[in-house]
Amino acid sequence: MPGSPLHVIIIGAGTGGLCLAQGLKRAGVSVAVYERDRTRRDGLQGYRVGIDADGKRALRANLSPELYDTFLTTCARRPVYGNQMTHEKKFLFSAGPEVLKPEDQPSEDDADESVSRMTLRQVLLTGLEDVVHFDKRFTHYEQAADGRVTAFFADGDSATGDLLVGAEGANSPVRQQYLPHAKLVDTGLIGITGKTPLTDETRALLPKEVMEGVTMVHGPKGFMCILHVMRFKWDEDGKPKEGIGSTDAEALRAWPGMLYDNSRDYIMWGFAASEKWLAKDVTQMRGARIQQLVKEKTASWHPDFRRIFSLGDPDSSFPLVIRTSEPIDPWKPSSVTLIGDAIHTMTPGRGVGANTALRDARLLTRKLVAASGGELSLLDAVGQYETTMTSYAWDAVIKSRAQMDGHSVMHKGDLIGNLARTGMRTAMRTMNHLPPVKRKIALAESSFRGAGREDED
């Protein structure tokens, strides 16, 4: 029997919320998105996000084939190396395609992609112009006796629907009202992000494996820096580069999101350190001031790394307090639910935050489409989603935190900290000389990021 028409309200036009909206609209389920940013250009910087097999699976399911192809066209060149280096620019570990056997190579569907966050947002906004409402700051919601829920906004407007989805990130007001006991905890780490334009000068500062991979640099006192080079299929004027396929060129010319995108070839870098080694007012710093702090803290680093920091665009640099959710006990499903960072904020330690949000969006879309068709009640659909979501999300939260904990021994400045860091480097160098071990590590990471995963959702 057909189900009752559903109307879904999504708070937040981020990665997970927009992917959910795309899937629901494509399936014919009524949906509206409310975003606090004033325009589609606001809010996000153009930093890199890796899209793994889980993320691609979700995008492929929720987007139209044409829009999914546009997503692929707007991705940067794929990283093929995973590197670990010292702050003196010496390799500790590097694994590329040569460590994998032919049968290990990921399929096109499972191969990792890299895209700028702003670019991904522009892709996900494409075709949703009639359902996304900007300049709407959510304040609170009310649930009626009949189960319907009304969202209220700071400008006095309100919206009523059958389900309210909080998708507005780590500081989610929806979560704060719905699950006030679901807290975020500081990891003790502060991140500082930056973008350095890719030019002939900056290109010459990096070896081939770093140019074509994702690299973690390890320094004294547990200081670390991730580097990733983003090279796109369009040039500084937004025109397709020579040598790309005609299909890609046609997609770029036809994509309306290109009008709003700001991504040009660049080196993305993210410096992180325990808060005890940084200035007390680091979270108030921006631009040239915070870039200067990075240069001061990396005085002993290789000149090439410091040159990359020096040439960074000051407007691109800002601090980030790295926080994480803590798993909570199951809750009773209702006409309110949460996806992405709104429920499972995680550190960037394993690089799966955005992909988990996309996985949420795909799963919730499927459950809500089933409810719309009368196969499930709305509460059963939400309950099944939340049961499955928390099973994989809490696992990712725990494993991501293990990679980034500013209170760990790695961030101590005493003899114990030095010994721990020396031991880590020795282990990496040893593994780097053992091809079977490198292959095992590469396969384990690919599996964690969803490659070959059965469709258990």
UniProtKB/TrEMBL annotation:
The signal peptide stretch is none
Keywords attached to this Swiss-Prot or TrEMBL record, sorted alphabetically, are:
FAD, Flavoprotein, Monooxygenase, Oxidoreductase
Q: Does the keyword Transmembrane apply?
A: no
Q: Where is the FAD-binding domain?
A: 7-41, 132-397
The entry lists its GO molecular-function terms as: FAD binding; monooxygenase activity
What Gene3D superfamilies has UniProt attached to this entry? Answer: FAD/NAD(P)-binding domain (3.50.50.60)
Query: What highest taxon heads this organism's lineage?
Result: Bacteria
Q: What is this protein called?
A: FAD-dependent monooxygenase
Write down the species: Streptomyces sioyaensis
